[in-house]
């Protein structure tokens, strides 16, 4: 599935020019919105190396991101996973909208993020870590977890800044399970920079200007009336993105658990292609 | 400081601390800057403005005298901010050096 999807995206990429200048982040959002009318298709698999006896898994998310206009971007995710020898499962969908709050570039640029997700307890994308999420959540076998419905509303305050080629971004996350669970909090923060700031005059694929490197940190901050670090899990993740001139971007980021509550590692891969002016 | 005060302080800062205006980078060879800018234009701008920058259904010609008369610094600032309400995206995701290269290319269109 992953290989076939990647080949399809590369072939699409060979079809024409498109704009793409991605940060290497998988978890942290910046204030960069999708260009109006453009559609980005992405496949983001994650290989989970848990601990505590849980089995390794591969989860994947197909993402469709559309620039509604200059300050509003919508995105649909379709999630799936496969654990050990078990059969692959569709684990739900998520629909997000991001609204840029200030119309011009500032020292710090805020974006409001609102997401509704309808996933099952078998979902393993771990796109955000909130509340007291720990490695123990993955001990539940997927066949049991898929009967557990999680309908959640998630909001984020995204703060992001560009300065001298660097991007620095921070996200504050609040997630509410509509079954009545308390609001859970989390964070993500990241910094990145292209390997070269100026473009070279000649077309190239492997030149430094096409690579961005960075590092992300993310984790839980407890829940309502229990905002604290004790009992939460945290990750640190170096990341690299390779933006090809034809609009295809490859990303790679191994996340390493930062404390005893975290999974051992989550290795994330990404391939995306942007189709300019898709609906216009 | 509680959360509400911190949030208020952030918004005051975000509105008040605008990004410093772009400053002209150290001079490089003009022709290579124009070529680099042309490459960036093809990657990021041509889908709306046309491969020859003569405009399209959604974006104006960049050969127009009104565009060519805009000072370089103002053009770089416009690329940074965009005009989000009218569909021109912000290109702050590109490093400032590349925005200057784009402007070098745009200003070279005057001679065409």
Write out key terms for the chains shown.
heterodimer, A: mainly beta, Porin, about 50% strand, B: about 110 residues, Cytochrome Bc1 Complex, Chain D, domain 2, about 55% helix
Report the oligomer.
Answer: heterodimer
Major sheet size, sense and barrel closure of chain B? none
CATH architecture tag of chain A? Beta Barrel
- Report the order of strands and helices of chain B: HHHHHH
Computed CA radius of gyration of chain B, to the nearest angstrom = 17 Å
Number of domains of chain A: 1
CATH class of chain B: Mainly Alpha
Description:
- The complex is a heterodimer of chains A (280) and B (112).
- Chain A has 280 residues and is mostly beta strands.
- In chain A, 6% of the residues lie in helices and 51% in strands.
- Chain A has a single domain, classed as Beta Barrel (Porin), CATH 2.40.160.40.
- Chain A has helices at 2-14, 142-145, and strands at 39-49, 57-69, 72-83, 89-100, 109-120, 149-163, 166-177, 184-194, 211-223, 226-227, 234-243, 248-257, 265-275.
- Chain A has a 12-stranded antiparallel barrel.
- Residues 1-18 of chain A have low confidence and may be disordered.
- By secondary structure, chain B is mostly helical.
- Chain B has one domain (30-111): Cytochrome c-like domain (Cytochrome Bc1 Complex, Chain D, domain 2), CATH 1.10.760.10.
- Chain B is built from 6 helices and no strands.
- Chain B is globular and about 50 Å long.
- In chain B, 36% of the residues are buried.
- Chains A and B meet through loops of A and helix 1, helix 2, helix 3 and helix 6 of B.
